[in-house]
Specification:
This protein has about 240 residues and is of the alpha+beta class. The chain contains five helices and nine strands; from the N terminus they run αααββββααβββββ. About 25% of the residues lie in helices and about 30% in strands.
Length: about 240
């Protein structure tokens, strides 16, 4: 039996127990899916990040706002700053698909992005990673395709996926935490100026609109971070 069918069966049984009075406080529907899955085995990282209908919990007129932070301790790696990314949700042709307009950073740093038509996954994930790769490869004078392939291979082969309690705006939600160090042991690690230790952490909560709760990319340095870059869903930032 496939993992998807097993998860579906667990959800049906959970609903039956609640109807019979054995469960006192039901979880939100999408969080219950996470809890059911944890009783078996965690999904693959790629399934959580790139294949779920992450925009299904949004509706036309919604704005998904993400606080962006970038901190570096080496001036040659660029400036530290804070900004914001906003996604404006518009109706798609039906089902879980949406059209999405993007406001990527404020006027002084604005980046062209989108719009996206008929998408079901949250484009903020790829927008954030693509912007990160352009910046990282530029600072290291490296090949962005090489770095992208390292991340892709890391998520496929070496990512750790664990059920996690994820805090959003003071609320604790059930979700997944995915962590990977894609450049660890890389043949070109010596050329990365300390950034070969960089870790990527993805917090995904099904009950957050757009499901992406937080992404952190960080490389440690003595006394702090050599590079720390994050986006975090901010329900009050619309």
């Amino acid at each position: 039996m496939s993992a998807r069918r097993i998860i579906g069966l667990c959800l049906v049984l959970t609903g039956a127990l609640f109807a019979a009075g054995f469960l006192v406080e039901p979880l939100p529907a999408r969080a219950a899916e996470v809890q059911a899955a944890t009783q078996i085995a965690p999904p693959e990282a790629a399934d959580i990040l790139f294949e779920r209908p992450q925009l299904a919990g949004t509706k036309p007129g919604d704005t998904l706002s993400y606080a962006y932070t970038r901190k570096v301790t080496d001036a040659e790696l660029g400036p530290s700053f804070e900004d914001r990314i906003r996604l404006m949700i518009e109706p798609g042709k039906g089902g879980d698909a949406r059209d999405v307009r993007v406001d990527f950073f404020s006027i002084e740093r604005h980046r062209a992005a989108g719009p996206f038509e008929e998408v079901t996954t949250n484009p903020v994930l790829m927008l954030f990673l693509e912007n990160h790769l352009v910046e990282l490869s530029g600072r290291l004078k490296g090949n962005p395709r090489y770095l992208k392939n390292a991340i892709r291979a890391g998520l496929r082969d070496r990512a750790r996926v664990a059920a996690a309690d994820i805090t959003v705006d003071g609320r604790t939600l059930k979700g997944w935490r995915i962590t990977v160090k894609p450049y660890e042991g890389d043949a070109n690690a010596a050329r990365m100026r300390g950034l070969e230790s960089m870790s990527y952490t993805f917090d995904v909560a099904p009950d957050v609109p757009g499901e992406i709760a937080r992404i952190q990319i960080a490389a440690e340095a003595p006394g702090g971070w050599l590079w720390e870059e994050t986006i975090a869903y901010d329900p009050k930032g619309s």
